[in-house]
Amino acid sequence: MLNKKRKVLIAAQHLFIEKGFTDTSVQDIIDEAKISKGTFYNYFSSKNECVIEILENAREETALKRRELLVYQDISDQRILIEQISIRMKIYRDRNLMPIFVAIFQAQDSGLSEFIKKNHYEEIKWLAERLVDVFGKQTKKVSLDCAVLMLGMIQQIQHPWTLKSKQISMEELVGFIMRRVESMIDSMIDTNDSLIDPHRFENFYEDVEITKKHVLDQLKSFKQQYLDELKENELQHIEFILEELSLKKPRKYILEAVIHSFSDTFKKTSYHKQLTEVTANVWKLIDETY
Amino acid sequence: MLNKKRKVLIAAQHLFIEKGFTDTSVQDIIDEAKISKGTFYNYFSSKNECVIEILENAREETALKRRELLVYQDISDQRILIEQISIRMKIYRDRNLMPIFVAIFQAQDSGLSEFIKKNHYEEIKWLAERLVDVFGKQTKKVSLDCAVLMLGMIQQIQHPWTLKSKQISMEELVGFIMRRVESMIDSMIDTNDSLIDPHRFENFYEDVEITKKHVLDQLKSFKQQYLDELKENELQHIEFILEELSLKKPRKYILEAVIHSFSDTFKKTSYHKQLTEVTANVWKLIDETY
DNA sequence: ATGAAATTATACTAATGGTCTAAAAGGTGA
DNA sequence: TCACCTTTTAGACCATTAGTATAATTTCAT
């Protein structure tokens, strides 16, 4: 019943809007959706998983609307960019998602913070590209800086206490910031005054630090999730990797060998996709650390 | 033993730096400081109170160093402003306080969020004034906007994922932002393009919304704190106000009458100062809501 | 109708922030 | 030294929370 899952998501969304993420307990969601705890944890492995889906919905909706806005339009039209930016701000504002976004910067929950980092990174890249669309190719070498600064300004000036009084539309607000960007963009290009190295940024997401704890957690939860379906030898593989990784100095080459055969073993299973993600991270961890 | 309190604060600070605020439990602090739970709650009425003191220390230290930097110096020297701004960023970075600051924007804990809002507000006001020092009087009408935007840019560009690679000093970073502000300030003045109404902002802090819950908490904790010293009739006053406020529709005029006599009663007590704060808030709440 | 999957109710665990208490330790003035 | 007062301690205790576990029941496709 995807219906039921939707029901849960709607209930959760509703509560998050009303009381905020941290002040909404799983129990609250369960009560609101009139389902049982078991059902909730059948759909989501944690409260964070649940909020991730809500964030993901918001992201998709934003992307869709943004795309629609550009159909048959001039990509260099500044007003459209302003609208595109505003859309995201409005969606996040209306759904009370900002606090989650901000608050999680610090949280070290692997899944959620990973998701949010990626999201933010994509937003910066998107905005940088659009700025080039609007302000011309010569903008390229400073577009990432501008994107980052712009998002910072928007976020800050949106705080209720700075505005509060004036009733001002999101478009006006973004427009205001856009004029600021416009007036600083030339001097940046002229003086070649840029902080962010585009090349470095390009590969940024791949370079997110992968911690041992993160990988261990991922692997453990994978094991947990498919405990029943796993065959004996597959389980042994996982167990071994867990043990070896937990050592102070995992033996790199042994690990590599085991993971190699391990990945092969799973090629045709239903959980193959999820597994490749995990193993990819194990690989990266090994490469980076040892 | 103020010594012991210091010990606790140092332990807490240490743990916050290492694991962050949310991931440090009161128990952790207690263990680290080698004191008992009772002692901790003797000094701080809550975990938040504890972190507030740490934040306050950081604030004071920042203010002090900033003042020192300006002694016998030209207030219009841009480099000094850059250093002054950097000081705060460095202190907050080193003590891992940023996450607290950011995360609490959403928290509705009265004390902590109140403190942080006030702090942030003071920072904006300070920076706006200093920008006028540096860029001249004609900057005044856009200085608040610039201050807000500047803080937003700094905060955003500090994120580890945007920089990460380059080793860059805080001063360079702030200098970079300062050049951006410099290049947008003129057009703002010329076009009179400003969002923040200075007058409104001036009174901002007084206008922070006062919730019923907040006032109730404040009153309860006051009662708790002075339970032994309070006389019977004083206690009755407090009890009554608590009860009445808890009703769906408190009777405004009765409350006013009681609070009036209540305030008089305490005129000469040792806790008079704290009480006036509480009653002032009760007044405001009544005025605003009923 | 049957058997598998989804769902329920509910009990449970572990961690957390915070309260409370009775006893011990420490310091101070007489 | 004694009496008295404050601080400190250890630990029991409470409520809330995320998340697990399980046995019973409902749903639903074949």
From TrEMBL, chains A, B:
DNA-binding residues (ranges): 25-44
A Pfam family annotated for this UniProt entry: TetR_N
Signal peptide: none
PROSITE patterns membership: HTH_TETR_1, HTH_TETR_2
Transcription regulation as UniProt keyword: yes
Sample GO molecular function, one term: DNA binding
Keywords: DNA-binding, Repressor, Transcription, Transcription regulation
UniProt GO BP: negative regulation of DNA-templated transcription
SUPFAM superfamilies the record matches: Homeodomain-like
Domain HTH tetR-type: start-end pairs: 2-62
Protein name: TetR family transcriptional regulator
